[in-house]
Write a structure and sequence with these properties.
Structural class: alpha+beta
Strand order of the largest sheet: 1-2
Helix content: 10-25%
Radius of gyration: 13 Å
Distance between the termini: 21 Å
Amino acid sequence: MATPASTLPVKLPAGTNASLWGYGHRLPQDDPAASCLDIEQVIPFGEIDIDSFSTTVRNIDAIGYTPISDTLQQAAASFPVGGPRTIVLISDGEET
């Protein structure tokens, strides 16, 4: 599923360090409890390969629930200590 997010890495400068987290992308809504735990660090933190990052983003298919707050907490906890840190959230906008 192509999303507007698929263009994000192209706009980042070379040498950018980032990670990619997905949620609600592996388990459908059939089992709400399991789907709400479907949070994964898809690409570990490090210097991104723009082509690989873009391909991975384009292939994420939102099929499950949307555990926004838990995902943000896990992503924030994974940041290295010190330095600037930013989280970019792309979502349907509904916390489920």
